[in-house]
Amino acid sequence: MVEPLVKRAYETEKKAAASYTDGLALVRGQGLRYTKVEELVGRIAVDTIIHKHLMKAILDAQKELEKLAGEGPISEVKDVELAPEQKALVKRFAEMHLDIEKDMIETYQKMAEKMTHPLFKGLAEALVENEKEHHRILAELIAKYGE
What we know:
0% strand, mainly alpha
């Protein structure tokens, strides 16, 4: 399980972010404002704050996923024959969500184009690919159950 590692990373990044923020104030207080030292320490401080928030987001997501998972992982996925009304429900559900996924693909693509920080840009690009996968799966459901 990765949760203890994520928790450890979050706690470490939290301490580091506070330390870098304090250090940046110290650097500036020593008359080193607008110098290479301030720029480098500031850059590390920004990255560390981002890392801290990403780890917190992962922890929050893991907690939510535990509630969703319920009984644990599914050992075997069964492909069953659906009744006509079940097929219609699956198709309608997939069609509704297809529009959401399309919108998210476009949104994350725009974010990736506009983001300047490499971590945010890379995350937005990864989200585009993930949303494309969702779109593909939903399109397959529509094709399969839209008959």
